[in-house]
Amino acid sequence: MNLKWLLNRLTHERRKLATVGVLASAGVALLIAGPLLLAGIINQVFAGSISTTLPDGLTNAQAVAQLRAEGRDSYADVVQGAGAVPGAGIDFDVVWQLLAVLVTVYVIGAAVNWLQARTVNNMTQQAMNRLRTDIETHIHRMPVAFFDTSTRGSMLTKVSSDIDNVSSVFSPLFIKLPGAVLTLVALLVVMPVISWQLTLVVLASIPVILVAGVLMAQRARPHFEDQWQATENLTSRVDESYAQLHTLRVYGAEERARSEFEEITADLARASRTAQSYAGSILPVLQSITAFSYLTVAIVGALQVLSGTLTVGQVQAFVSFSRMFSQPLNDLTAMMSQLQSGLVSLGRIRALLNEPTEDAPAVDETVSTTFGRHSFPPEIDFEKVRFGYRRSSQGDEEMVDVIQDLTLHVPSGATVAIVGPTGAGKTTLTNLLLRLYDPSSGSIKVDGDPIESKPRVAVRGQAAIVTQDRWLFTGTIADNIAFGHPGATRADIEAAARDSHVQQFVDTLPDGYDTIIGHDGASLSEGQMQLITIARAMVGHPRILVLDEATSAVDSRTELLIQRALETLQQRTTSIVVAHRLSTIRDADIIAVVEDGVVTEQGTHAELLETQGRYSIMYKSQFE
Ligand SMILES: Nc1ncnc2c1ncn2[C@@H]1O[C@H](COP(=O)(O)OP(=O)(O)OP(=O)(O)O)[C@@H](O)[C@H]1O
């Protein structure tokens, strides 16, 4: 099934496939021509040699008759079979000519095989490239919820190691397969022409070889599955350990990490060893079967030469043919076990590609990508929104409601602060607004349009998000600011940098906006990184702004700069602000207290303090 799927993907390359077919046919024709030419040379030399032992001047028939009359029937059979002309000797002109043709055939054959291997290699590499691209595209279209239950290690293994494995297993197979199949078919035609008895001897070994191959492959398969699962676990472990290196060191947990690592590598080694031992043990078995087949061919062939049915050259050619026959058969059978490893990887990749996707990122031109009156920040309505994350517990999946029939109105251009205890569902609300998840019931409307009916890219295209997770990538400051907005000009970038106070520290850097910052903003301070992500949000001229704990622990001067930058952004947008530190949201137009997935109170800071409810308790606990 998986193999058929892979072959279907290769059929994109029709021209290359046709070239491989032509080259493989030519290669096989040349391969078979070799032993036939060699048989001709041996027959010339053999007939020439025995012709000197016969009386000169006789024809072959006369010499044979004379030998029979002398009672030397066996020798007569050999002379007749060889077609020796008495006294003729070896015709070296013919021998040299045949040798020259033979060498030419071998040289052209080698060139054709090289060309075929190169074409197949290019073809499989291109197919793997396409597969990688398809996976990457697919991953970006998969719902965020999928990644909640899968580890990064699992994704990394599929995108890199599994594809490499498919490539390294199938590439040699596809190089050998066309030539092998054509060789087997051609030999099944040529061999019976020389001797059907010897052909039967060779054919008798096929079922034995196939049964041995299938048995070994079946046994190897579950161990390859274990091997790839262990590889995935190992990648996840490395990913986790390196990401948490500081915490590991501080808690002195290196020993524990090391012993867990050793356990996983031991699992991996065990599974690989067993899988490879099955895959490796098939070859000696096949070699024994083949050796027995050669021996039988040689004995039966010798008897046929003695009976004059075959010439020495023909037997020699047949022995070569039987070797040519068993070689690809053995190669393919030996590959059957290794193939299991490739099929396991292919199955894992296919399972990923079969995961359902969200709507396509490309926006249909007929679908409007904007909401309501475009020149104003939109109003946002959460209407009886209900939502639960899928959680897996001991293999079972269950839905636990996090947001329950939540209703909230955010007027155009307003700033709404969402506050509440930890785990209340504040971040979840912003995730729903950005359509990272969809509600199980109810609706979120932007300017009256339900966002569920709009393409996700349209929803996200109007929004910007600034969180504590200040993701920066290795590149220039300008590139980091323009991230997600490829059309942004240098003037746009600099304007955003000015408004977000990034310019102040960029001006102190020798390379200014072209300063390369390392992965995750290495070489910048926390506050500077935060300011860059605010500039990034500004470049897109968003209409909706989501701030999730955007101001974290920085010095009070930097915090002031961040506050000012965010205020500039908030003036142009409808903003949803998730905050723990209530000092940062005192001026919000509406403060909504969310508890257990519902809004329990809402109003301005002053109103809520006056009602003496939950907010007032939270506020007082922070400031009094
Ligand atoms: N991806 C997820 N998969 C499963 N459950 C999740 C996921 N994200 C959050 N949750 C759960 O949903 C609930 C609400 O989480 P959410 O992050 O919205 O809370 P919060 O109010 O923002 O909390 P905090 O103030 O601590 O950030 C929590 O119980 C959390 O464990």
**What is the fourth-level CATH superfamily of the domain at 2-52 and 89-128 and 155-353?**
ABC transporter type 1, transmembrane domain
Q: Count every helix, treating DSSP H or I runs of 4 or more residues as helices.
A: 20
> Tell me, what's the shape?
elongated
Strand order of the largest sheet: 6-9-10-3-11-12
User: How large a portion of the residues is in β-strands, by DSSP E?
Assistant: 5-15%
Helicity range: 55-70%
Q: Which value, in Å, is the CA radius of gyration? A: 39 Å
**What is the CATH architecture descriptor of the domain at 2-52 and 89-128 and 155-353?**
Up-down Bundle
What ligand species are in this complex?
A: adenosine-5'-triphosphate
Terminal CA distance reads 68 Å
CATH topology of the domain at 2-52 and 89-128 and 155-353: ABC transporter transmembrane region fold
Count the beta strands.
Answer: 12
What structural class do you assign from the helix and strand content? Answer: alpha/beta
The CATH top-level class label of the domain at 2-52 and 89-128 and 155-353: Mainly Alpha
Uncertain ranges: 361-368
Mean pLDDT over the residues: 84
Largest sheet: 6 strands, mixed
Describe the 3D structure.
One of its GO terms (cellular component) is plasma membrane. Residues 18-341 form the ABC transmembrane type-1 domain. InterPro entries: AAA+_ATPase, ABC1_TM_dom, ABC1_TM_sf, ABC_transporter-like_ATP-bd, P-loop_NTPase, Type_1_exporter. Residues 380-621 form the ABC transporter domain. The chain contains 20 helices and twelve strands. It is an alpha/beta fold. A six-stranded mixed beta sheet has the order 6-9-10-3-11-12, sandwiched between helices. It has a four-stranded antiparallel beta sheet with strand order 2-1-4-5, with helices on one face. Helix 3 (60-69) packs antiparallel against helix 4 and helix 10 runs antiparallel to helix 11. The two termini are 68 Å apart. Adenosine-5'-triphosphate (ATP) is lined by residues 148, 389, 391, 402, 420, 422-428.
